């Protein structure tokens, strides 16, 4: 049975002459698991909001949307609330009440169920989601992953027949994201609930999806099983191919064996084996001329070294007198001009390390030197002018004015420069980050990637020599990630040292000079990026996991493609 | 600290108990009743808060009691039994001394009851009780309790983000600090309004605003609650009858006059003691029961 039928649906926002959605034809059968992907701003979210008319933004819609056989306008608020569940992107914003149990009951209270039925439904859902251990907790004590799971559970308590999710995992760390996708799979498989979700990170979600819909510029360009959608993208040579999982990209890059395009790492390994069969393999020589070498030398105890700009010397830190140590006996050095990445699990102390480097918190033992000077003895002015800057995880925390342009000028408000000099500085930054089209917009109206660019511009106006980044790729699509990498590389080339904390292994592997693994409050291992990932067997890129049985040093997608192309 | 059993009763029972004890504590001036009330309040507060309560009572309540008891006769000179004259010629009367002691005792008792109330009546219970009267208000309470820690956390994050560009309230001179503080608040406001839109979407999408909304709670009024509530009502009834028949009367001015102690007034005193000690009795009984169960297995 079809649960949704969209016929020739177009949607235009007020005061806009361009349609956000154009001529969408889509049929969704009951019980399907559908993933929608596409660049930010391609109309994914707008499409999702058409599917629940009480959340549809103002604008002009053409065409018909049928829900369970009837036009969606005929479904009243009660039906829509009960049958169509909608999970938002930010887990914090979805939660209304202060207690977990109350949140679970919220929807049922609205629908007017009596206490007995609510008790039963809440108990069922808490058990299904494994929430019973934190059932009595306050919402503020939960982790991000738990919060998103709570959002999902509180909607599932209403027993909807469709679940619509708008980038539900974009604010979660990889482990929590994988858990969340697994829960969705369980809901889909065991309860038969139809699932429609948008997503940037496709590696986990594609293996469980029945269909992958790719959107571009408000139109659907591919709509088939993940494998066939991938093939379609390949035939179109579409840029969205870059958002597909690594095995797919490698296969497409090699342009061979497209018929059996692999989706998972497992399929990728099998595909690679078949591909390499009967071909002589020529292992590329590892490029040791990269800048990572200085560290490799430093670790080996020889070679020429750059001046260290960030030095941690046996640093210990805890958040309270009785609290456990967050950072334990941490020593490391970042040399001038390096792109230094810290990776590691959640709660290992990565972000704390960044705060320590920025002087936001002080260690209780050990020393932190910036440019050879103890950070504890530096004034804020000394530290933050022309020396060090932090780009916070949430760029919204930096915006204060009505337009991006005013916001940039605000950054220079305290400086003694003349107006012309200020204008010149702002102009340089705007050109560097290609912000011209955004200057007159309100910072909050920008997309996630654009907001981050604007925030980066603000930070760069301080002309830092050291830039600290906290999870800069969180919630960004592949396209914006590449843009960000491009700017960071440019800064790097100008001699700015970059230290980044991230969960995003693929990004670090592709762009970092040196990677360090953080675990249990300290750095366990540190090495030039290639060597670092080649040395790990699980905590490494998908491309490496796919190819490491034939070539351990193949870390990035490009490496593996190059390998395949060279073997003949 | 051991978990108090009385706290696990239905919020109405908890609230009824404290309402009764606070009201009786403020209205009844009979010395026997006052001593009973003080004793019950002290015992229960120590049971609830352990050493912290002992410290609180000794460090703050005892001095407060002394000060209040001394202050009254110094300023109040009513009463017929004059003991001696002060240097400024004002009389010191026995009535005003005793009244001071009585008033101080009442005040301290009420304060201790409130410390117990705070430990037992958590925000959930309070919200639940108000939700019974006004469901919309209880949701607002719950949302406020959600937003306060969230906003606090957010302010902290914004402040850190601003500190990392050298613009926090801890940086710069007074004027700059004040300006930075206002900037942080302004960011916070924009952020809160922007994100509230999504929360409103989440509420709407889960049917908020539909008619006939119900209010769910984890509490159930079970037989245990009925038993204790019944006992409490019976004891309160005895107290009220005692009051009506003048068994609890006490007069200080102009001369001290106390109701005669009759067999019925003994019953009233016993009822008050039982009522005041109810949580302690429940706690002890349950603890004993637990011991006997665990010794059998």
UniProtKB/TrEMBL annotation, chain A:
Family assignment from sequence similarity: Belongs to the ABC transporter superfamily.
ABC transporter domain: residues covered: 4-242, 310-545
Keywords from the UniProt entry: ATP-binding, Cell membrane, Membrane, Nucleotide-binding, Translocase, Transport
Lineage start: Bacteria, Bacillati, Bacillota, Bacilli, Bacillales
Membrane topology: Peripheral membrane protein
UniProt-recorded name of the protein: ABC transporter domain-containing protein
InterPro entries xref list: AAA+_ATPase, ABC_transporter-like_ATP-bd, ABC_transporter-like_CS, ABC_transpr_CbiO/EcfA_su, ECF_ABC_transporter_ATP-bd, P-loop_NTPase
One annotated Gene Ontology cellular component of this protein: ATP-binding cassette (ABC) transporter complex
Source organism per UniProt: Paenibacillus radicis (ex Gao et al. 2016)
Pfam assignment, any one: ABC_tran
Localization per Swiss-Prot or TrEMBL: Cell membrane
Molecular function GO labels: ATP binding; ATP hydrolysis activity; ATPase-coupled transmembrane transporter activity
Gene3D superfamilies tied to this protein: P-loop containing nucleotide triphosphate hydrolases
């Amino acid at each position: 049975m079809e649960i949704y039928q969209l016929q020739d649906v177009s949607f235009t926002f007020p005061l806009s002459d361009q349609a956000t959605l154009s001529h969408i034809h889509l049929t969704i059968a009951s019980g399907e698991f559908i993933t929608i992907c596409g660049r930010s701003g391609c109309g994914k979210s707008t499409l999702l909001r058409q599917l629940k008319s009480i959340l549809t933004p103002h604008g002009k819609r053409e065409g018909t949307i049928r829900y369970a056989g009837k036009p969606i306008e005929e479904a009243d608020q009660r039906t829509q609330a009960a049958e169509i569940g909608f999970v938002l992107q930010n887990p914090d914003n979805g939660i209304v009440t202060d207690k977990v149990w109350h949140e679970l009951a919220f929807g049922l209270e609205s629908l007017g169920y009596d206490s007995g039925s609510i008790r039963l439904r809440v108990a069922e859902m808490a058990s299904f989601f494994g929430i019973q251990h934190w059932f009595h907790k306050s919402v503020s004590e939960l982790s991000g992953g738990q919060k998103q799971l709570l959002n999902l559970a509180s909607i599932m308590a209403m027993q909807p027949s469709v679940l619509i999710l708008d980038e539900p995992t974009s604010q979660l760390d990889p482990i929590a994201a994988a858990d969340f996708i697994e829960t969705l799979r369980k809901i889909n498989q065991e309860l038969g609930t139809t699932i429609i979700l948008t997503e940037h990170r496709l590696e986990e979600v594609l293996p469980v999806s029945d269909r992958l819909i790719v959107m571009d510029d408000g139109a659907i360009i591919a709509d088939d099983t993940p494998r066939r959608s991938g093939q379609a993208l390949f035939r179109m040579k579409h840029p969205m191919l870059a958002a597909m999982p690594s095995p797919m990209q490698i296969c497409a890059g090699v342009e061979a064996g497209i018929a059996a395009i692999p989706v998972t790492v497992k399929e990728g390994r099998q595909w690679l084996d078949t591909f390499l069969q009967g071909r002589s393999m020529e292992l590329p020589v590892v490029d040791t001329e990269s800048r990572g070498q200085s560290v490799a030398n430093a670790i080996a105890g020889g070679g020429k070294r750059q001046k260290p700009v960030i030095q941690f010397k046996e640093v210990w830190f805890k958040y309270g007198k009785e609290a456990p140590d967050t950072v334990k006996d941490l020593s490391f050095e970042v040399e001038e001009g390096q792109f230094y990445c810290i990776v590691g699990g959640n709660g290992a102390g990565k972000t704390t390390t960044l705060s320590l480097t920025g002087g936001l918190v002080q260690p209780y033992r050990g020393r932190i030197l910036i440019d050879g000077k103890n950070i504890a003895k530096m004034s804020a002015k000394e530290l933050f002018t022309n020396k060090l800057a932090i780009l916070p995880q949430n760029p919204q925390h930096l915006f204060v004015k009505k337009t991006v342009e005013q916001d940039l000028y605000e950054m220079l408000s305290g400086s003694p420069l003349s107006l012309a000099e200020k204008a010149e500085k702002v102009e340089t930054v705007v050109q560097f980050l290609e912000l011209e089209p955004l200057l007159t917009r309100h910072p909050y109206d920008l997309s996630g990637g654009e907001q981050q660019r604007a925030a980066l511009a603000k930070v760069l106006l301080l002309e830092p020599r050291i830039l600290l980044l906290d999870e800069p790729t969180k919630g960004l699509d592949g396209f914006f990630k590449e843009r960000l990498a491009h700017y960071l590389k440019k800064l790097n080339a100008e001699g700015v040292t970059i230290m980044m904390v991230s969960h995003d292994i693929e990004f670090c592997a592709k762009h970092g000079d040196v990677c360090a693994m953080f675990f249990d409050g300290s750095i366990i291992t540190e090495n030039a990026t290639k060597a670092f990932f080649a040395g790990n067997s699980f905590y490494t890129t998908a491309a490496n996991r796919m190819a490491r049985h034939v070539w351990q040093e193949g870390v990035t997608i490009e490496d593996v493609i190059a390998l395949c192309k060279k073997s003949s | 600290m051991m978990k108090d059993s009385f706290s696990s009763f239905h919020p109405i029972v908890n609230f009824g108990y404290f309402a009764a004890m606070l009201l009786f504590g403020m209205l009844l001036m009979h010395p026997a009743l006052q001593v009973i009330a003080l004793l019950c309040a002290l015992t229960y507060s120590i049971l609830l808060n352990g050493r912290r309560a002992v410290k609180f009572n000794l460090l703050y309540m005892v001095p407060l009691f002394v000060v209040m008891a001394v202050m009254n006769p110094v300023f109040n000179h009513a009463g017929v039994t004059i003991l001696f004259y002060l240097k400024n010629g004002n009389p010191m009367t026995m009535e005003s001394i005793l009244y001071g002691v009585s008033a101080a005792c009442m005040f301290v008792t009420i304060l201790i009851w409130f410390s117990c109330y705070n430990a037992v009546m958590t925000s959930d219970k309070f919200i639940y009780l108000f939700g019974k009267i006004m469901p919309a208000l209880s949701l607002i309470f719950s949302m406020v309790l959600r937003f306060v820690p969230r906003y606090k956390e957010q302010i902290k994050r914004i402040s850190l983000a601003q500190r990392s560009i050298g613009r926090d309230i801890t940086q710069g001179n007074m004027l700059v600090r004040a300006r930075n503080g206002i900037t942080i608040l302004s960011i916070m406001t924009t952020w809160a309004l922007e994100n509230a839109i999504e929360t409103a979407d989440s509420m709407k999408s889960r049917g908020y605003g539909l008619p006939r909304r119900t209010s769910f709670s984890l509490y159930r009024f079970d037989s245990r609650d009925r038993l204790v509530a019944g006992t409490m009502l019976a004891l309160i009834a005895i107290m009220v009858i005692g009051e009506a028949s003048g068994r609890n009367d006490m007069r200080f001015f102009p001369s001290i006059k106390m109701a005669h102690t009759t067999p019925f007034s003994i019953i009233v005193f016993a009822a008050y003691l039982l009522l005041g000690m109810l949580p302690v009795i429940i706690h002890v009984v349950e603890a004993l029961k637990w011991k006997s169960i665990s010794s059998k297995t």
